[in-house]
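Handout, page 2. Input:
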Amino acid sequence: MEDVTGRVVVITGASSGIGLSAAVALARRGDQVVLVGRDPARLTAAASEVRDATGTLPASYRADFSSLDDVRTLAAHLRSAYDRIDVLANNAGAIVLHPATTVDGNELTIQANHLASFLLTVLLHDRIGRTVVTASGAYRWGNLDPRDLNRPLERYIPFLAYGTSKQANILFAGEAARQFPGMLAYSFHPGAVRTRFYNDNRFVAWGMKHSPLLRGPDKGAETLVWLATADPARLVNGAYYYDKKPRRVSAKATDPALAAALWKASEQATG
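Output:
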């Protein structure tokens, strides 16, 4: 592990789940964690949980990734507050059960899970030491078409839209490593983790909370914490990890031409 004392680590999607677990773990190691979340009340509760575990109240910023203006405002605040961001954990994400379009004109899943993180990273890339992107093995369901990022809206199936956004996460991490030589980039699969994704469906939410087949958030956060703290000499820049090991992924998530096309499409979609 690197000497992490005093590093600045920004974690999106930090109000609950693996984002909050990672924040607590990294703060205990000596990092100065910065929490980003959408819901003010949950963000305040998360900051209090980190303080209770470590004795230090972390900084926190509210940002709703369904609005790219929120992302731009967040980036401006972070640039003003921190000369360097040692780690940006692009962890925010959601499964959207019904077709929806954001105020920016993008399909909600691809914006919340990819485009917002893309924009935040690009706006801050000159200050970021490494980024860790929370992807998923669900990328296998993806059918990304950079020519039309809103394609899932034509026949919306939640898990396919989610898989497409996770495919984009892996492609983005790989291309970020090529686009920004001064910044390290990794993506990872946290495993099947109990999440708040289905809170608007009581039956599914109960199953997600109590199923013995799912990992708890602390276990899901282990690879994120490891990628945020491991010596870069032990890691493969741009690679995809699962359980602290690099994993091979199919061509749909590693094709450099597809990654470059996604990058250009993401630039256009985010302005």
